[in-house]
Amino acid sequence: MKPAPFEYFAPTDITEALDLLTHYGDKAKILAGGQSLMPLMNMRLARPSVLVDINRLAALSHISLDAHGALAIGALTRQRTIERASLIQTHYPLLAAVMPSLGHFQIRNRGTIGGSIVHADPAAELPALCLALEAEFVLRSAVGQRTINAADFFRTYLTTAIEPVELLVDIRFPPWQAQWRWGFQEVCRREGDFALVGAVAVLQMDDDAVCQAVRLTMFGVGGTPVRPQRAEEMLSGQRLDGQVLDQLANVVTTELEPDSDIHASAEYRREVGGVVARRAIEMALGNARGHNER
Amino acid sequence: MIAKQTIQLTVNGKAYERAVEVRMTLADFLRDELNLTGTHLGCEHGICGACTILFDGEAVRSCLLLAVQADGANLVTVEGLAQGDELHPLQQAFHENHALQCGFCTPGFLMTAVAFLQETQSPTEAQVREAISGNICRCTGYAPIVQAILQARLGG
Q: Is B95 at the interface with chain A, CB within 8 A?
C-alpha cells in the first residue's frame, strides 16, 4: 500500500503556498497533519497529483486571546498543543474538555485543528464544536481573504465552502462568557474512535434557573453537524426539569435525519441522539460556570 | 515521474542522509532504506498503531508521515530502547508480564508507552488503558500489557 505518485512542495511562507494553490487548483491537496489525508492516499482513495505540505508554515501555528477574550487559533496548530495549552484550559473550558476525545494521542500529536475542520468528517468533534460556539474561519487565497461562519462552511459529507485555491489560516472563537454552562457527550465503540453520535450543549441560565439561551449541536447524525432547531426552541424560556428533558429527547429523536452506515443504523442514531442530547444538557446543568470535571 | 529529495535526519542517535522518493512513507523509509525493521506495519492507515515511533519526542504513526517530512527530525524507534544487551525497563516489564506473544504489535505498544510514561509518571490503570487505546493487539490480550506498563511505571 503506497500513495500514488505526486509532485511535492513544502513552501516556507504563506504567499508561496497560496501561489501553488492558485497554479494547481483542484489538482493539489493541502497536507497538514495528514491524519485523514494520508490514510486516503495510502489506500489510493485520494490520488492528488500535487501535494502542498504546509507543515513548514510556522506562522499558522499559534493560540492567542485578545483584550475582549476572543480566541484565535492558527489552522496548523496541533490538536495536542491546544489540549495542553494553559490558556485554553483557563479561558476556554469546553475546548479543553473536548480535545482529548479527538482520536488517540498519537493522532493528536500530528493532527491539526484546521485539518479536522476542512476534512469535515460528519462524526468529528471539532466541526460540531465550531458550530456550537459560532466560530468563524478565515480563508486566504492569493487574491484576498474572507471570513465565513461555521454554519455556512459545512455543506455535506467531507464537503465545505472552501475553494481549491483557498487556505484556512485562522479559527476564531467568540469570547467565552462566564455564565455559559457546557456539556459534551458522545457514544463510540472505543476510546478515541469517531463518534457514532455526539452532542455539544452551551446553555445560559438566569437566576431563577430558567434557560435564557441554548445552543445544541449534534454530530454523527448526517452529512454535517446540525443544530436541531425545534429542540433548541423548546428549551428556551423553560425550567429544565426531568419532564422537559424527557420531551427534549423525544423531539431530538424525531428531528434528526441520520443515515445508516456500517457503524450504526439510522434508527439507532435517532434513538441514541435523543439520549446524548439529554445527557449533554444535564451535564451542562451540573457544570456550574463550566469548570467542573467532565 | 520519480521525484526524489535528499533528507537528513537522526534516528536513535545516528545521523543519516538519503535521497528518497517523495511518496515513500516514513515507515517504509525506516524499514526499507535504513533496515530498521523493528517498526512494524499493520494497517498502513493509522488504525492499528504498530508503526508508532517517537518524532521529535512525540509518539506518532510513521505510516501517516512521508519520509521527506522527517527532514531535520530526531526519531526514536524500538531499536533505540535497549542499551546493548540490556533491555529498556519497559521491555523488561513486557518480558516479565508475558505482555507479548507473537510480538507483531509490541514495538508500537512500547513506543506508545514510552511517550505516555514520560508525560504521565504515575498513571492509573484507566489512564494506561486510554493511552493504549490506539494500539491493537490480536493475540496476547491487553491485560498483561496494562500490567507491564503499570509495573514499568513503578520502576519495576
A: no
